[in-house]
Design a protein that fits this description.
single chain, 285 residues, 7 strands, seven-stranded mixed β-sheet, Rossmann fold, alpha/beta, 22% strand, 11 helices
């Protein structure tokens, strides 16, 4: 059960109305449910494997994957013989993870629909809590961080992979915001990719916070191919294009292709686009 005393809320500017987090979350859920994130998500599997190594998971540990998407960290933990609970608020993404686990004959994995800001688990239920590019998109970071701390046992680990503000994906979301402004009062998800933000959110409940900048390489045939895939399957980009008229859609496409070209290190051998992310491992106090 959620302990009300453990829940923090995002700070508000004096005199400003509090954001309607429920309404924001409803729109976010619709965005992530559109398209088929798993088409993009499966390419990120190596991040889940690396994160499980950083968390130093052990066989038999109770592991929670929060905002698990199609289950990259879930599968990585299950391959290490952990007892894994995989959660997301989009049922279709949980089904993709369930399909993948079944295909690999991975056992001991429970898939449950859950909100990262109101996890349906008792205090100190898990030895390790993971998230790869998931929790960073919650509209109320303080509440989400409080929930991760609450369900992790003392001495356990919270391990996350979050895109940095300067990364390709951080810049993609900055570009999207110029065309479709984010709701008032909601901070950039890329702030989760900074050490300062993680210390701010977790220091009170942590005995140690270790961060390291890592890099994931997106590999596609061309910038146009990458845009085609993201525009068709990556919910936030799909929804952004759908909200714009034809001229603005063209301008957004040009801006996104420009970003891909700016980051591309593949030369004439196909698109190779590095995107930095912050790996965070927090030891629960």
């Amino acid at each position: 059960m959620t302990s009300s005393s453990s829940i923090a809320t995002a700070p508000q500017t004096a005199g400003a109305p509090a954001p309607d987090f429920n309404a924001i979350k409803t729109r976010q859920k619709a965005a992530w449910a559109s398209g088929d994130y798993a088409v993009v998500g499966t390419t990120l599997q190596i991040v889940g494997e690396t994160l499980c190594e950083a968390a130093d998971l052990r066989a038999g540990q109770r592991v929670l994957d929060v905002a698990a998407g199609n289950g990259n960290a879930t599968l990585a933990a299950a391959r290490r013989w952990c007892e894994v609970t995989s959660t997301d608020y989009v049922p279709a993404l949980l089904e993709r993870g369930r399909e993948r686990a079944a295909a690999e004959r991975l056992h001991g994995v429970d898939f449950r629909e859950a909100d990262a800001e109101a996890l349906p688990f008792d205090d100190a239920s898990f030895d390790a809590v993971l998230s790869t590019f998931g929790v960073m998109f919650t509209p109320n970071p303080a509440r989400a961080a409080s929930e991760l701390l609450r369900v992790c046992r003392p001495g356990g680990k919270i391990a996350m992979a979050n895109w940095t503000p300067e990364s390709l994906i951080g810049q993609v979301f900055k570009t999207l915001g110029k065309y479709v402004p984010p709701p008032a009062g909601v901070t950039s998800p890329a702030l989760w990719g900074t050490r300062v933000r993680n210390v701010e959110l977790f220091e009170a409940g942590a005995s140690n916070i270790v961060t390291e900048t890592r890099q994931f390489n997106f590999r596609y045939r061309s910038p146009e191919h990458m845009l085609e895939v993201f525009r068709g399957y990556y919910g936030p980009i799909l929804k952004a294009f759908a909200a714009l008229d034809e001229d603005k859609q063209h301008a957004l496409a040009e801006d996104l292709i420009g970003l891909m070209n700016q980051f591309n290190r593949g030369g004439h051998g196909g698109l190779v686009v590095p995107s930095d992310y912050l790996e965070i491992v927090i030891t629960r106090r």
